[in-house]
Design a protein that fits this description.
- The chain is of the alpha+beta class.
- Helix content is 16%, strand content 26%.
- The protein has 13 helices and 38 strands.
- It has a six-stranded mixed beta sheet with strand order 2-1-3-7-8-11, with helices on both faces. It has a six-stranded antiparallel beta barrel with strand order 12-13-16-15-14-17.
- Strand 21 and strand 22 form a beta hairpin.
- Helix 5 packs across helix 6 and helix 8 crosses helix 11.
- It starts with 8 loop residues before the first helix and ends with a strand.
Length: 783
């Protein structure tokens, strides 16, 4: 499903911008000949690309293009995450997918010749039916190829000795090697690359670097014996291969230093690991991408659209393996504190509990509770219950998972002040006489964002550079005004803010949304939240405008539904409705709870989108959520009143592998404005919500239609959530409940668990009931 029609041959040959995984390291396992593995992995990671101290770069010839890698002044930079990524991949493959032959090639070992030799050795050791994973984390680049039919560029991976002038390894070279695995050895290949697709792609916000280097302008066509496009008679995807990509061909694959462990991870990496680690049953490759995509929608980093090619309906690493819990080992015991060999890369947070695999003399197991996360490969725990004597080397398995919660909505708050006046706004705009102003940046792309700082007004350009007042800057601008201090103070008194469901920041780069104010024709203020992506270049057709079907906000708007601006690729509004309190008894700060409710809904959607798709331990339910439109050949967004089916689907193999237990099935969603709504079941049918029902022959069906639905305003990208649980939820309103806005309101069990996941007392996380399954799907629509 996320295929691009304009694919380059080099992309088809297997080089994609893929982010690695975030799990901890384990040592390679050496096997005797009679224990020959059926699974092999080669993990390549390069952090350090800087030439060694005192080394001379290749002489820059006058013939090099100014934008090429070897032009005068061109720089090389190292990376910060690939070796952590390799360690992550190692643990995931070993513990979750039972890979036994895992080889690593890191930093100075990963020369061009070293990489090629390692792949060829892997090919030699592969036999028919084996599983093979080739993973690369490092710089990506391009090389001039005038014989290539697409843009005359080949995609490349950059070996550690490239600074010497050693050539990159091109996509076409790798395609030839991959063909040997897929077609000659008749093995299953999964290729994963954590490198950018183009020179404009970057991975990062905090301490960010680009996982790309300028291209090599030495034409491949001049190289004797080079593999050219005409030499490729087939590509790996035509055989038993899956190629997974973190981004589209022109998007950024981003990474950042995340606060839960202080380590640098890719946004795609975090989402992908959570999907794979926390699903106890095999998912198809396209289902994995769909789940990862949904989590990326909720990330505050720049959005990227992952994709997959090859055998997309099969699992990434072959047949599903038996479900098992995450295991950790005690590496150190000191003063009542236990050091464990897995940290943040295990996908858990403070409060997670582990049970000893061996019970004490009285039959009682020891329960450990995580008290701090030290690094991706280390955490600290204390004994919570059971025998208190624990020795180094003891093995424990997860018994209660507390998942990191990075879904807190961060809102940029311009400096508060008095309610602005038309005259004051005109005075501010006069400071930048060459700018053209809009009062809504969704109306047309803006070149400058004008905001007040401690030293006065500044215009920030699209490059992030500040421009002082004067006649210099030219272009379209938006005046970002802060709300009155009284409104801000009132928002801070609401329960969501006090319970840390969201926070304000003075750093626009940290924020997911920004809150601003503008004046209506009568001079009264109205407020809106803008996704910061609105500041990026866009086309008019990228945005979907429609009325927001929200009775509460319609009441504030004089009975008229306000307009919201959405997109079809993101399940978050680009701009919320402009909020104001037009009621006769309105006071200046009565709008604050309304704003808080809007922020809470945005945050609530983020929380649900980052909920693990299936928690560890659920093994008795094989079904997946599927959206099927009546016109199966249509690829464009759904249109008003067009119907689609909501189904539960599973393969016969998945059904036969499990002793299935029927579940209570609940379906709810968020429209593109983040308004929650209940779909299935109705209050009247909740008592018969268990499913799916058996066929007439007593077998479970492979397809079960829950219901038919049609799209309605507001149009854009809705997100649907399927919740399957052994426990009946008696009050269905809990799934769409807004939570506690004002003190004195009642909360609820489900609300506490799934909505207010950001309570400070849980360090931004909460445990997820191990009998719950949460799946999600995005439904795009246009008027």
């Amino acid at each position: 499903m996320f295929r691009h029609e304009d694919r380059r041959l080099c992309k088809r040959a297997g080089l994609h911008a893929i982010c690695a995984f975030m799990l901890a390291a384990a040592l390679p396992i050496h096997l005797h000949a009679q224990d020959r593995p059926t699974s092999h992995a080669l993990l390549i990671g390069i952090d350090n690309y800087d030439p060694p101290a005192g080394s001379a770069m290749p002489a820059s010839a006058s013939g090099h293009a100014i934008d090429s890698r070897f032009a005068p002044g061109a720089s090389w930079h190292s990376l910060k995450g690939p070796l952590t990524d390799v360690a992550a991949m190692h643990l995931l493959l070993n513990q979750t997918y039972n890979f036994t032959d895992i080889r690593e090639l890191k930093d100075q070992e990963a020369t061009r010749q070293g990489i090629l030799d390692a792949i060829n050795k892997l090919i030699d050791d592969t036999q028919k039916g084996d599983r093979v994973v080739i993973y690369y984390a490092g710089h990506g680049s391009q090389r001039l190829d005038t014989k290539s039919s697409k843009n005359q560029r080949d995609q490349t991976i950059v070996p550690v000795d490239a600074w010497k002038g050693v050539k990159d390894i091109r996509d076409k070279e790798l395609a030839v090697l991959f063909d040997k695995i897929v077609f000659d050895r008749q093995a299953r290949l999964t290729a994963i690359y954590d490198s950018c697709n183009s020179g404009t792609m970057a991975r990062g916000i905090t301490e960010s670097v680009q996982r790309t280097l300028p291209y090599d302008d030495d034409d491949v066509a001049k190289e004797t014996g080079a593999v050219l496009e005409s030499d490729l008679k087939r590509i790996p995807q035509q055989g038993d291969a899956i190629i997974l990509a973190a981004t589209g061909p022109t998007e950024s694959a981003e990474e950042a230093r995340y606060p839960d462990d202080g380590q640098i991870h890719g946004a795609f990496t975090r989402a992908l690991v959570r999907v794979l680690r926390q699903n106890s049953q095999a998912m198809s490759a396209e289902d994995v991408v769909s789940a990862v995509s949904s989590m990326l929608h909720a990330d505050q980093l720049g959005f990227q659209q992952p994709s997959v090619e090859g055998r997309v309906h099969e699992s990434l690493f072959g047949d599903p393996v038996a479900s098992h819990e995450l295991h950790v080992r005690v590496t150190k015991v000191a003063q009542g504190k236990l050091t464990l060999d897995v940290g943040s890369v295990g996908g858990f947070d403070v409060g997670t509990e582990f049970k000893s695999t061996k019970a004490g003399d009285d039959g009682t197991p020891t329960i450990l509770e995580i008290t701090s996360i030290e690094s991706p490969t280390a955490s600290t725990a204390t004994v919570k219950s059971g025998p208190a004597t624990v020795s180094a080397g003891a093995v424990f398995e997860a018994s209660k998972m507390v998942y990191p919660q990075a879904a807190r909505l961060v809102v940029f708050l311009p400096p508060p002040g008095p309610v602005p006046s038309t005259a004051a706004n005109a005075t501010t705009k006069a400071l930048f006489p060459s700018l053209t102003w809009v009062d809504d940046p969704t109306l047309q792309p803006v070149d400058f964002l004008v905001v007040q700082e401690s030293k006065g007004w500044v215009a920030y350009g699209q490059d992030g550079r500040p421009v002082k007042p004067g006649k210099g800057p030219k272009g379209v601008a938006f005046l970002l005004l802060g709300p009155p201090q009284s409104v801000v103070d009132r928002i801070r008194l609401t329960e969501p803010f006090k319970r840390e469901a969201f926070k304000f920041t003075a750093d626009l780069g940290e924020a997911s949304y920004f809150l601003t104010i503008r004046l209506q024709a009568d001079g009264s203020p109205e407020y809106a939240l803008f996704d910061r992506r609105v500041l990026a270049a866009h086309k008019a057709e990228d945005y979907v405008r429609s009325e927001e079907n929200d009775s509460a906000e319609a009441e504030l708007n004089g009975g008229k539904n306000p307009e919201v601006v959405c997109r079809n690729d993101l399940s978050f509004p680009v701009r919320t409705a402009w909020l104001h309190d037009g009621r006769a008894n309105a006071t200046e700060d009565s709008i604050a709870p309304v704003i808080a409710r809007r922020i809470l809904r945005l945050g609530k959607l983020r929380v649900w989108q980052q909920t693990p798709a299936m928690v560890s331990g659920v093994t008795d339910w094989p079904y997946h959520l599927a959206i099927v439109r009546a016109n199966a050949t249509a690829k464009d967004p759904l249109h008003p009143s067009e119907q689609y089916d909501i189904r539960l689907v599973a393969t016969q193999d998945e059904i036969s592998r499990r002793a299935i237990s029927p579940k209570y099935i609940y379906l709810f969603g968020f429209d593109c404005a983040a308004n929650p709504y209940q779909i299935y079941p109705t209050d009247e049918t909740n008592g018969i919500a268990q499913g799916p029902p058996l066929n007439s022959d007593g077998a479970f069906p492979t397809t079960y239609e829950l219901m038919q639905e049609s799209v309605s305003p507001p149009y854009g990208a809705d997100t649907l959530f399927l919740l399957a649980t052994k426990e009946k939820i008696n009050n269905l309103n809990l799934l769409t409940y807004d939570g506690v806005i004002e003190s004195g309101s009642r909360g609820s069990g489900v609300d506490e668990l799934m909505i207010n996941l950001n309570d400070s007392g849980t360090r931004g996380g909460t445990s997820v009931v191990t009998t719950w399954q949460v799946q999600q799907a995005v439904v795009a629509s246009r008027p």
